[in-house]
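Q: How would the structure tokens look for this protein?
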Amino acid sequence: MATDTISLTLKPRDVTGKQVRQLRRDGQVPAVIHDHGKPSINVQAEYNELFKVFQQAGKHHPVSLKAGDKQYLAIIKNATFEPRKNRLDHVVFNAVTAHQKVEAEVPIHAKYEEGNDVSPAERNSLIVLTNLEAVTVEAVPNKLPDALYYNGEKLVEAGDHATVADLIVPEGVTVLTEAEHTIATVYEPSALAAANDAAAGAAEPGDEGGVESEEGDAADDVPSQAGENNPGGKAQKESHDQGTNPEKQ
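A: Here is the predicted structure in token form.
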């Protein structure tokens, strides 16, 4: 559970749009805090400090923020990375309250019997492909789990699979991702190889069965300050390898 305190001190940020390029060159990361419909707060933090917090908190662990003379409890809603160097580029925090349920993205891991670090299928030279690495959950901040687990020992033969319904969910946590969504599936290596050959190296699981950036160039130069002034926003799927984010500024 999210009981350990993760803290971060942020500095007020005056620069926006293209000017944040220099901010990044100076080792700072632009960020924004959305606070329950109030005007968004532009902030910044030293790169190593903010990156360490992102590694610890992910998108599921509450972070205690100090910005100027104010304190916030927040969840990282979005974190984008500059694609060429894969460096943390921008962070969006959503302020939360201690007793109000929030949505968060929680990573998924397989759980094995003591002494094992892979599934029975993998121990028998089969291949397990992961289809889902995280799920969306709802809970009060101090009940948010650092991860959810499923029994990896159930993956034994080709065709075996685990779904969201197989997750071990602690009390006080609701999983919002569809229960039938597949987490992982077991395949025969020969079947995957044949499918990959047939697809010229572009096979997908199952084939064996038949924003604008402040960093960028050209169109990426268009600032999107309006996005920062839209408190909360809608949840958006992010990837460390994709640097687009309409909330970014």
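Confidence is low (pLDDT under 50) at residues 209-227, 229-247.

The chain has two domains: 7-96, 102-202.

Upvote if useful.
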